[in-house]
Design goal:
Two copies of one chain form a homodimer.
Chain A (H helix, E strand, L loop, with lengths): L20 E6 L11 E16 L7 H9 L4 E11 L5 H19 L6 E8 L6 H12 L6 H8 L7 E9 L2 E10 L12 E6 L5 H14 L15 E6 L16 H21 L7 E9 L2 H12 L2 H8 L5 H10 L10 E4 L2 E5 L2 E2 L5 H8 L3 E7 L5 E8 L3 H8 L4
Parallel strand pairs in A: 3-4, 7-8, 9-13
Antiparallel strand pairs in A: 1-2, 2-3, 2-8, 5-6, 6-7, 9-14, 10-11, 10-13, 11-12
Helix pairs in contact in A: 2-3, 5-6, 7-9
Chain lengths: 408, 408
């Protein structure tokens, strides 16, 4: 099956090397798709790590083990397998992960708990241990590769390679953050719903790195949805090598901590948007701005009810300013709302205010806006100070074709 | 736009008249579709009524008023407008409903609170009062019509007419229940998500009728979903004329009360299934049986997470026994589950048991089962006594065509 590149794709940015980070790729052959499918990232001794993981009750062994080991705060390596998620594979799946951890730890002479493993692909097939072993051995001896090669290798149904970068100044030193991400379907927020990795040369205390990552995640990866389906393997890890030589950040009071936290959030937001831009079948990138809700959390839940509504998403696909479907989605969200205070707009034009269609509503600029690739939906609840922004894509024949017309 | 009759359609059953109930239809012209669009049902004096309504925070005036008036327990008439939902229309929408109630109450010389009104169709356009007045006047003078004519007239995007019947014996007297329903899109459970009306000649105390209807609703209309989108106008009303002459039922201890409650549940289940069979774009009718959950409520939430998952629904559309997507949906449901006790089957064949694919899993009978129109998915959590059954349809190109390719 040939899938065309998303019309919302963005070119891979020019990301510089991060001191203390080396990326390598190899071909383990998990799937017969004639490209590299194993990514190995080596991290200098002393690298801090933080992570956020899927809340799925049926998560993979990779997620279970990673969630435990991230607590120590130290990492030396990351291995990402593409083509097999190793989820729902019982003890055999767990053995494969532990084998990879031991193999890399032996090579680096580090505790195996400092080796992080992710896998993405088909559910229910144990990761073949022989292929994993040969793939890891090949990767350990491979030449270093570019960020784009690493981004391409962690991808599965992705139609373009996704990366982002940002910089910040900490105590006069410029530090750099680089991120790569994969994801296109089974994308719904309950953490991250994809695999994402962020690397920085900043020196950051693990606990503070976790605090910054959790905060950034809440307003970025947890505010996107493609199809409301939450993966069993979602993982975002942040690694800080400390090679930039700044004095290690340990709290928001430290000089440069705000700048670092902002830059991390910026990279997370960029990566999250790229996942939506590669949503299965996506033709339009939709921003839903919710204001006037009872609280920020309530605004986020209302935003996600809109962004997950098949009827709203198909209306946008059809370039139809069907604000009645937005009313429906607000109504079903289960959050405080007053029908007679609700206002809805598209592309900066209000279509309905205070619970009624506007008499002088000018549909022409809205129709023009809906023909574009970037769609803005505004919803004001009129009952409180809560606000949130969520991002999604439209629901098209392409989604059905990718997920129904071809067998797994 | 021509929409073909659902391949899952069932013929309209042979439903006898219900003593004390007269149905009439007329053309109000709410939409330019050249058919009757106003249904008027007259009920004999002394008729009991019960109702369940959408929980949408943005419900229509019809729902607000009906929810209040059903508390009195008495009904003399029902008016259903098709082609305009009158939702999100502020005070003008409310005035139109009150005008209809007053017009019919004047004709019947009854309190206007005993006239129930429902409307279905486009959101955000006030129901035109002149058309409503002329339509009601025409209906009051029209000849009585058949159940199928009434079912056809309440429909909007429905592709076939939907009705059901059942009988029960109460104290030696046979009583009859007749039901009609409309609904095809914007179907998700939070009550009923469509319009449904059930009429019986049994004598039933209003409070007990409400108790029976609420109980039946919980395991029927609240266990179906087409697209996870909850309508602003959903309503199910049950009317009991008492013309059968049984001694009125007032509690489950009364003779025949169990038989009546069973028959009511039977009609509700039949009507709920018909809505799924007319789900927008539906090609397959899917039954999800969840067992071994912590509680019945938990089982229902897990069942609905599966039934609402676009990835599960597209897998069934593609006739793909992709049980990994079922694992994903169980995992995202937010309910207690133990990955290593989870079992999943299709058409009576287990594909995975206790958290792992079955080594001797025979895919051939499953593949054959998935080619059919009636698909059974079984999920056993293995952790408790909770069970539930939910019903849905697959997600196909037809759904996208109906909702995206054409403008509202």
């Amino acid at each position: 099956m040939d899938i065309e590149t998303s019309p919302l794709a963005q070119p891979f940015p020019n990301i510089p090397p991060i001191a203390g980070v080396t990326t390598r790729v190899a071909r383990a052959g998990y799937k017969n798709w004639g490209r590299c499918d194993l990514t190995y990232v080596e991290l200098t001794a002393g690298t801090s790590v933080a992570g956020v993981f899927t809340k799925s009750a049926c998560c993979s062994s990779e997620v279970e083990i990673g969630r435990d080991n991230v607590k120590s705060g130290h990492a030396r390596a990351l291995v990402v397998n593409a083509g097999n998620s190793n989820a729902f594979t019982g003890y055999r799946g767990r053995e494969a992960v532990e084998q990879i951890m031991a193999q890399v730890a032996g090579h680096l002479e580090c505790p195996k708990e400092e080796v992080f493993v992710s896998s993405t692909g088909v559910i229910g097939v144990p990761l073949p241990k022989d292929k994993a072993e040969a793939g890891v051995a090949a990767a350990l001896n491979a030449a270093p590769c570019s960020w784009e090669d690493a981004a391409a290798t962690i991808g599965t149904t992705d139609t373009f390679n996704k990366g982002a970068m940002a910089t910040a100044i900490i105590g006069g030193k410029t530090i750099t953050l680089a991120g790569i991400v994969k994801g296109s379907g089974m994308i719904a927020p309950d953490m991250a719903t994809m695999l994402g990795y962020i690397f920085t040369d900043a020196a950051v205390d693990p606990a503070f790195l976790q605090r910054c990552l959790s905060a950034a995640n809440a307003s970025t990866f947890n505010c996107i949805t493609v199809d409301s389906d939450t993966s069993t393997s979602d993982t975002v890890l942040a690694f800080a090598t400390g090679a930039a030589g700044n004095s290690a950040l340990a709290s928001y009071e430290d000089d440069g901590a705000d700048a670092f936290a902002s830059a991390l959030q910026d990279v997370c937001r960029q990566l999250a948007h790229l996942v939506v831009r590669d949503g299965e079948g996506a033709q339009k990138f939709i921003t839903v701005d919710v204001t006037g809700a009872q609280s920020d959390d309530s605004a986020q839940r209302i935003g996600l009810a809109i962004a997950n509504s098949p009827l709203v998403k198909t209306a946008i696909a059809g370039e139809d300013a069907n604000w009645g479907r937005v009313v429906m989605a607000v109504g079903k969200a289960g959050e405080p709302a007053d029908r007679d205070k609700l206002s809805i707009g598209f592309g900066g034009v209000w279509a309905a205010k205070d619970g009624q269609p506007l008499a002088d509503y000018d549909e022409a600029p809205v129709a023009q806006h809906l023909k574009g690739r970037e769609i803005d939906i505004a919803v004001d609840l009129g009952i409180g100070p809560g606000r949130a922004t969520v991002w999604t894509c439209d629901l098209t024949h392409g989604y059905i074709s990718i997920n129904a017309d071809y067998r797994s």
